[in-house]
Amino acid sequence: MSILIRGGTLVTAEDTKRADIYCEGGLIRAVGPQLDVPAGARVIDAGGCMIMPGGIDPHTHMELPFMGTVASEDFFSGTSAAFSGGTTMIIDFVIPGPGERLLDAYKKWRGWSEKAAGDYSFHVAVTWWDDSVHEDMGTLCREHGVNSFKHFMAYKNAIMCDDETLINSFSRARELGALCTVHAENGDLVYRLQKEIFEKGITGPEGHPLSRPPEVEGEAANRAIRIAEVLGVPLYLVHTSCIDALEAVTRARLEGQRVFAEVLAQHLVIDSSVYRNPDWDAAAHYVMSPPFRPREHQEALWRGLQAGMLQTTATDHCCFCTPQKRAGLDDFRQIPNGTGGVEDRMSVLWHHGVRTGKLTANDFVKITSTNAAQIFNVYPRKGSLSVGADADLVVWDPDARRTISASTHHQNIDFNIYEGMEVQGLAAYTLSQGKVVWEQGELKTERGAGRYIDRPCFPTYWSSQRRRNELAEPTAVVREKPEQAAV
Ligand code: URP
Ligand code: ZN
Ligand code: ZN
């Protein structure tokens, strides 16, 4: 199958130019003005559209077993929905239960993900520690293309990782040249606040944000950053949702520490008023962690994105349908945490970011694709339009409009957190491995066509230098031994 996309404007992280692009055998083969049509090639007219690298969502949870249930979106439906919004690769998470071997969990997730329609990769969570975890981290890096490990600082009595585990894992990641990522919320504090709030008689979804204030995220973000600094490892914060965490990231970056941070599209445009909805279901639909924040946090997050303090955008796509959310009808602590949006991320960011002038089209490519490809080491195979790269791309119509709704979306969930939002800027065509998988409103996906993408570890020079000299070059003081005092 070969395709020539003609007449569009190529937009990458670096530049914008009028050019055609020719794809064959799953790869980009030629880029240039007025390319000849090779015999047998399909021609797509991209007049009025932009051609960009397909989106990479570096944070999703397809069919995740969590809080007594399983996320409703599976790897096939989720990667298909992603295509309809212009996203061609996801990085999902293997999350071993406490005591479960990392390799066993990894193999289980690889089995589930065989049905994926689009390319994917896995971060692996470290949820507990012993020698087998140390060993499996090495095997995953060396033999299975895993270069990032996740640490949940929240979800006490489930998958929470204490400081000792964090330190062991960060040290091991440094040896391996892997990237550490964290969900930054102080889980002990959340546990305490949840109990206090529940005992005050606040049992509904409004209790959720009250038990997870921004300070809880800021403290954990700062703690993880400082631990990473002392151990000399790069760090990536997932779903940065508030000023407190953004300030910790900003300070570290300005001090020269290698810290990366992600923001979710939904945290940029939805505020905490959703939890005050008198309709229980409507409020519970927004229960995710960290929670939606008061408006001033969104403004700060946009500025963080503009300033390059936040480098990637994700969705944390983790769908639970209304009946699943109702497990917490009498107790907000039992509402499964998670929201969807893998289909909507690119349009929401284009509409609220590019159309408002906050971001350029090139910025958009960086934050939806290229930066994630570089940070997680799949660039330029992904995240670029260079010759030889995977032909994962999106023909983006900046004028097309859509009103987001659960009644028309492709995600396997019975509501949409953006319900009724009108967005301008949509994927007209999406190509995955050089094949059209989304065409003018129609999905053409194939179960199992997605490939697992290896992500090699980083060379050791990529590790952060320890910032403080006395830690980097420890020396002992040479002393005379004191005379042994007579007893
Ligand atoms: O509420 C959320 N975010 N659920 C998914 C698990 C996680 O914390 O990323
Ligand atoms: Zn999380
Ligand atoms: Zn998550």
Briefly, what CATH class? Answer: Alpha Beta
The CATH superfamily is: Metal-dependent hydrolases
How many structural domains in the coordinates? 1
State Rg: 23 Å
Average pLDDT, all residues = 96
Question: Got a strand count?
Answer: 21
Cross-sheet strand order for the largest sheet:
8-11-12-13-14-15-16-17
Helix content: 25-40%
Q: What would CATH call the architecture?
A: Alpha-Beta Barrel
Sheet-strand content, in percent, reads 15-25%
Contiguous helical run count: 15
Low-confidence runs: none
Structural class: alpha/beta
List bound small molecules: N-(aminocarbonyl)-beta-alanine, zinc ion
Distance between the termini: 90 Å
Structural write-up:
- The chain has 487 residues and is α/β, with parallel strands linked by helices.
- It contains 15 helices and 21 strands.
- It is 31% helix and 22% strand.
- The chain starts with a strand and ends in a 15-residue tail after the last helix.
- N-(aminocarbonyl)-beta-alanine is lined by residues 61, 183, 288-289, 316, 318, 337-338.
